[in-house]
Amino acid sequence: MKTYDPHQRFGRPQGGWREKLYAVIFESDTPAGLAFDLALIGAILLSVTTVVLASVSEVARDYGNWLFAAEWFFTVLFTIEYACRLICVRHPLRYARSFFGMIDLLAVLPSYLSLVLPGAHVLLNVRILRLLRMFRILKLTLYIEEYGMLGRALLASRRKILIFLSVVFMIVFLLGTVMYVVEGPVHGFTSIPTSVYWAISAVTTVGFGDLVPKTDLGRAIASVMMLLGWGILAVPTGIISAEISQQRRSSRTCAGCLAGDHEQSARFCKSCGTRLPAS
């Protein structure tokens, strides 16, 4: 059965060298496509490593020229890759506006901006543009199927998570207000927003220690909030895990009758008896 290609919305060329280039860049079910994906993943990891090493002053002092050359090598390499992606699709503007199209652009844009923005030695904050190169690591998500499954699970459970977060917000707002009344400005709880900030850090079991309840009643409320935080943190995990499990079940579709929603342990279709693909 033909599987859905998420990149088809960009338009697959019909014949010619552009179709061959499309198959190499956007598909990984051929030896050339698989080799391209593996080589690109390696280049992404090496380029990110270069940026990380350049941020270490000792390494940058001793190997600055090598790191600079490596950075521009990867910049040119990813520029060529980005241009090839635009060339081999029938709707290049549609790809450029897509999520990964924007990520591809952000992966190379900062290096070129540094050429057209002289005076960076005066405007030191302009150097923060170099940090945008870390967006290259997001390109890895394109080659890992589980990222897509996680994204679909988050999207499918967005309403449940939104309702859950709204309940958590009401809890921390109410308990933060109570702590403002119990502790008061004398113990550092100078306002309701400050108390709500403390409530959030307590419920999430972070506990920075900048605000600490001093009264016995305040400590009792803090203890309840910490214990409550354990249960609160487990809820989103359960919601997303259930959605991922449901997607795994529904993704097993029979090639014979197109029936879905098979158990992970099922070997044959429950409708027609056709052998199911391996999970």
Topology, pairings included?
Elements (H helix, E strand, L loop, with lengths): L15 H11 L4 H24 L2 H31 L4 H6 L1 H18 L28 H12 L1 H26 L8 H12 L12 H35 L29
Helix pairs in contact: 1-2, 2-3, 3-5, 6-9, 7-8, 7-9
Summarize the structure.
This protein is mostly helical.
Mind explaining what this structure looks like?
This protein is mainly α and 279 residues long. The longest helix is centred in the C-terminal third of the chain and has 35 residues, at 216-250. The protein starts with 15 loop residues before the first helix and ends in a 29-residue tail after the last helix. The chain folds into 2 domains: 6-143, Four Helix Bundle (Hemerythrin (Met), subunit A) (Up-down Bundle), CATH 1.20.120.350; 156-250, Helix Hairpins (Orthogonal Bundle). It has helices at 16-26, 31-54, 57-87, 92-97, 99-116, 145-156, 158-183, 192-203, 216-250.
Main β sheet profile: none
What is the mean predicted local confidence, pLDDT?
A: 79
- Structural class estimated from helices and strands: mainly alpha
Order of helices and strands: HHHHHHHHH
Overall, the morphology is: flat
Do you know the CATH architecture of the largest domain? Up-down Bundle
Determine and state the CATH class of the largest domain: Mainly Alpha
What is the CATH T-level topology of the largest domain? Four Helix Bundle (Hemerythrin (Met), subunit A)
The domain tally reads 2
Uncertain ranges = 1-5, 119-127
Strand fraction band? under 5%
CATH superfamily of the largest domain: Voltage-gated potassium channels. Chain C
**What is the distance, rounded to the nearest whole angstrom, between the alpha carbons of the first and last residues?**
15 Å
**Percent in helix:** 55-70%
Number of E-state strands:
0
Radius of gyration: 26 Å
Count of helical regions: 9
